[in-house]
Amino acid sequence: MMAQLIVLAMMACSAALLAGFFGALHPAFDSFSHFRMHLSLLTALLALALLAGPYRLQAVAVLVFAIACFVTTTGALPRLSAQQAVAKPADRITYRLLQMNLRFNNPTPKKVLSLIGRTNPDVITLDEVSGMWAKELSYIAGAYPYRILCDYPNGIFGVALLSRRPFAAGTAPRCEPRGAMATAMIDFGGIPVNVAAIHLSWPWPKEQSWQIGELAQPLAALGETAIMAGDCNAVPWSAAVRRVARMSGMTLMPSAGPTWIHRTLPDFLRRYAGLPIDQVFSKGGVTILSSARLEDIGSDHLPVLVEFTLPTDSNAPEDEHKSALAANDAPAKPRS
C-alpha cells in the first residue's frame, strides 16, 4: 500500500513537471514551471524510494526524467563560493544598477537607505513602492535627484526609478499602464540608455500573462541600447520571462540565484531554496559584467547589484551586445 501511494505521488509530480514545459500554450501550465527545481528534487527522492521494489523500472524512468528537468534549472542554482568577475575593460567606465523589491510594509526602511549609501549605484530600480516609500526615498533626493515613482492601482505594487545621472536632454521619464513599469532615457556620460523598472503580477490564476500583453507596446518601444530590471514573479526558464525578453528584444541576464521566499522563512532558505524571480534584461551596447545578491534589507526579496559597461562610441552597432556573467554571492564592496 505504501509503495502504491509513493507511485501515485511520483506520477503526480512527474505530470506537474511535464506541464511546466508547455507554458507557451497556456499560463496555467507555466505556473508549474516556477517550481521545476523543487518538483525535480521531490520526484527524484520518490523515485529513489522505489528502486528496491517491484516498481523499479518505472522509478528508473522517472528518475532520469527528473534529472533531465533539474538540469534545465542549473543556471539559477545558488553559488556556494565566490567566483572571479569578468575583467573590467580598462578603457570603459563601470556602472552599477541596484534592483530591489522593497516590500510595501518593510519594517526596516533604514536598511534600504544604508545599502544604497554603501553600494552607491548609478541607477536604482524599485518594486512595491507603497505610500510609505515615497517619504523614505525623499531622504536621498539630494543623491538621486532624477527619479520617477509610478503608482499601482492598489497603492502597494508601484515601481520607481532613481538615478544619480541626468535624464537625456529633451526626454522625460514615464509610467506605463497601471504603474507596472517605469522608463527613462538616462545620460551615461553622453551615451543615452533606456532604463526600465518592471514589476509583474503573480502567475496564473493571477493576472501576469494579461499584464505582459498590456506592456507589449512599452517593451517594444525600448531603445536599441537598454537595461531593464525588476521583480518578474517568474523564473528565468518560464514562458513568461521568455515572452518579456522576446517582446523587448532583450537578452536575459544569467540568474544571480534565488532571491525570494516567503517572509516567515529564514534568509538561509531564501538563498538556497528560494525562487530566482528578480530578473535583469539588456540589449545593444550594454555589457553585463557581474551580478551579486546582497544582504537582507527587511524585504522578502534579496537586492541584486549589477555591474555593466557601455561602448565608448554611442553609435556602436547593436551586435556589440554581450551578456557575460560571473556572479559573486558575497556583498559587493562599496565603490570609492
Query: Biggest sheet, open or closed, and with what strands and sense?
Result: 7 strands, mixed
- The overall strand count is 13
CATH class term of the largest domain: Alpha Beta
Q: Round the mean pLDDT to the nearest integer and report it.
A: 89
The amount of helix comes to: 25-40%
Q: Please give the count of helices.
A: 10
Strand residue percentage: 15-25%
The SS-based structural class is alpha+beta
- In N-to-C order, the SSE pattern is HHHHEHEHEEEEEHHEHEHEEEE
The main sheet orders its strands as 3-4-2-1-12-11-13
Cα-to-Cα separation, first versus last residue: 65 Å
Radius of gyration: 21 Å
Quaternary structure state of the chains depicted: single chain
Task: Write out the CATH superfamily name of the largest domain.
Answer: Endonuclease/exonuclease/phosphatase
